[in-house]
Amino acid sequence: MRLFIYGYGFAGQALAQRLRGWNVSATFRTPEAGAAMAADGLDPVAADDIGAVAERLASCQAILITAPPGPEGCPALQVLVPALARAQAFPDWIGYLSTTGVYGDRGGGWVFEDSRLAAQSTEGARRVGAERDWLEVGRGMGLTVTVHRLPGIYGPGRSAFDRLREGRARRIDAPGQVFSRIHVDDLAAGLDASMARPRAGGVYNLCDDEPAANSDVVAYAARLLGMAPPPEEPLDLEAMTPQARRFYAESKRVANARAKAELGWRPVYPTYREGLAAILAAGG
């Protein structure tokens, strides 16, 4: 069995590690990245080499697309579509990783996969376009394309513990503001479940069960480390980086009921508390 990953990062690495026994090919953009992937046992492929990509897709059962879209849209489209056509490949599953940012701000309300899309940032709008483009490719080429909308991803090496230890953690006082999140292992399990039950045009929110304020997450992580939590700061969007401003400009609760019902998926870490405790227990 072969998995092809376009854009090998945190999520792709977690899925590759979960699919033990699979052959995994993944794209790289720098020679250093390709060498590091080869050292990890992956088959590295230059991201813009359509011929090499087509060669791998000819024997591929699953494709994961994680690369973010740019001003010209999803970069994977311009490589994978001609490569699929050249290889005459029909993988069992194509998964596109999107973001819950496509929903925009809902004032803390719940959003579901059929909720109106109302992206408020350029990045979110690009994701809406990329979702549409990939679903159209699936219909046009007879491929099983699925979309997975993700909130903030955390896990070993990328959690509130790291920010606290480095002195970067902040607790912003934003009354009523909540966010969803997902542990990277639960994300990989959700993708695995989608691969096992592929549905053309399937759209799924993959997130934990308890949306929470970011300040609560930081405070809980500090307690687990035996540290005093950072003091709360008033919300000041104008003083934030563009990325932080986008984060705090939106508040919503993301529902995961469809993924549970259709895919039989359940998060092992249903809240940030279980997820953080597991990271710390593993030395993270």
Q: Percentage of helical residues?
A: 25-40%
What is the average of the pLDDT values? 96
CATH class: Alpha Beta
Uncertain segments are: none
H/I helix tally: 11
Number of strands: 13
Widest β-sheet, arrangement of strands: 3-2-1-4-5-7-11
Radius of gyration, rounded? Answer: 19 Å
Strand content: 15-25%
Instruction: Could you tell me the CATH topology label.
Output: Rossmann fold
What is the N-to-C succession of helices and strands?
EHEHEHEHEEHEEHEEHEHEHEHH
Quaternary structure annotation? single chain
- Helix and strand composition category: alpha/beta
Question: What CATH architecture would you give?
Answer: 3-Layer(aba) Sandwich
Terminal CA distance: 31 Å
- CATH homologous superfamily, by name? NAD(P)-binding Rossmann-like Domain
Structure description:
The chain has 284 residues and is an alpha/beta fold. It is built from 11 helices and 13 strands. The chain has helices spanning 10-18, 31-39, 50-57, 77-87, 122-141, 160-165, 184-196, 214-225, 242-248, 257-263, 272-281; strands spanning 2-6, 23-28, 43-46, 62-65, 93-99, 110-111, 145-150, 152-154, 171-173, 181-183, 203-205, 232-234, 253-254. The strands form 4 sheets. The protein has a 7-stranded parallel sheet with strand order 3-2-1-4-5-7-11, sandwiched between helices. Strand 4 (62-65), helix 4 and strand 5 form a beta-alpha-beta unit.
Quick overview:
This protein has 284 residues and is of the alpha/beta class.
Q: How are the SSEs placed, and which strands pair?
A:
Layout: E1 2-6, H1 10-18, E2 23-28, H2 31-39, E3 43-46, H3 50-57, E4 62-65, H4 77-87, E5 93-99, E6 110-111, H5 122-141, E7 145-150, E8 152-154, H6 160-165, E9 171-173, E10 181-183, H7 184-196, E11 203-205, H8 214-225, E12 232-234, H9 242-248, E13 253-254, H10 257-263, H11 272-281
Parallel strand pairs: 1-2, 1-4, 2-3, 4-5, 5-7, 6-13, 7-11, 8-10, 9-12
Helix pairs in contact: 1-7, 3-4, 8-11
